[in-house]
């Protein structure tokens, strides 16, 4: 079994109101050393064993077509044994 771990973040320069709210909450709890918070998404996709090269291409295609908004989001992924 293979697991694709997809990490999605807002592109630099895109406002992150959720990150700003989390930063404010952390500061109110005394964590003043936190300078910036960016909130993203994490998605896990599980596959049967297969050709790793083909799987990487498919996950990349999924990210571009449906899992992310390429206008405002960046993504990275890794594939690990599950």
From TrEMBL:
Pfam families: PurS (PF02700)
Top class in the EC scheme: ligase
Manganese listed as a keyword: no
GO molecular function annotations of the record: ATP binding; phosphoribosylformylglycinamidine synthase activity
Catalysed reaction equations from the record: N(2)-formyl-N(1)-(5-phospho-beta-D-ribosyl)glycinamide + L-glutamine + ATP + H2O = 2-formamido-N(1)-(5-O-phospho-beta-D-ribosyl)acetamidine + L-glutamate + ADP + phosphate + H(+)
Subcellular location: Cytoplasm
Entry superkingdom: Bacteria
Keywords: ATP-binding, Cytoplasm, Ligase, Nucleotide-binding, Purine biosynthesis
BP terms from Gene Ontology: 'de novo' IMP biosynthetic process
Signal sequence annotation: none
Any single Gene Ontology cellular-component annotation: cytoplasm
Record-listed E.C. numbers: 6.3.5.3
Keyword Nucleotide-binding assigned: yes
Major location category of this protein: cytoplasm
Annotated pathway: Purine metabolism; IMP biosynthesis via de novo pathway; 5-amino-1-(5-phospho-D-ribosyl)imidazole from N(2)-formyl-N(1)-(5-phospho-D-ribosyl)glycinamide: step 1/2
Similarity-based family: Belongs to the PurS family.
Subunit field text: Part of the FGAM synthase complex composed of 1 PurL, 1 PurQ and 2 PurS subunits.
Role played: Part of the phosphoribosylformylglycinamidine synthase complex involved in the purines biosynthetic pathway. Catalyzes the ATP-dependent conversion of formylglycinamide ribonucleotide (FGAR) and glutamine to yield formylglycinamidine ribonucleotide (FGAM) and glutamate. The FGAM synthase complex is composed of three subunits. PurQ produces an ammonia molecule by converting glutamine to glutamate. PurL transfers the ammonia molecule to FGAR to form FGAM in an ATP-dependent manner.
UniProt protein name: Phosphoribosylformylglycinamidine synthase subunit PurS
Gene name of this polypeptide: purS
